[in-house]
Write the structure tokens for this entry.
Amino acid sequence: MNDALENLYRARREALEAEASVLDVEQDAQLVPTLEGAVREAKSQAAKHERSFRLQVLADLCSKVHHPRALELLLGILNEDDDSVRLRAAMALRAACQSRYAEVIRVAQDAVDAGLAGPALLELPGLLLDAAGMEHAPPVDLLVALIEHDNAEVVAEAACALAEVDLPGVRELLESLAEDRRAVVDAQGETTLGDLIIDLLAALAPPEPST
């Protein structure tokens, strides 16, 4: 067992040293072509486990490269169907948000405006709202854009995040979806988007009485 642990320590140490070597450039922009090529190569792997492994490694690496293109690549990794890859990409994106929240929001907003589609849209609302915490303004513009998405599941995720924000105008926006009969899945199982919205509205603070 001790020998196995020593091997693990050695492997981890070597991995950290290798990562530091990759990141050792004068300007992070120099790493962008390397990352782009590495992501393309990872996605071309026929073996699922190798594709997953490489993309998880690259997700961690992208979060440490201070360049918008690295964040775009990270969003692309977040858009993978592989649950393990998305989990690692989400963790990496949260790490990037700790020091570059505004930049992450800009890149995500640009991606959504450019027509981003896929699993990343289900991850972004809750992930970015959690990353905002008490330090940053919630990504309301991005959430509102996702509320207007064609995919009902994306709308549901954005609506749940907006309900947590509970800013002026949120109630009216959610109320506009109360009759939506598209099917979605929540914690209790299959329901309709409208019924989910009604539950969210019930949990909001009651509107102030008009004077």
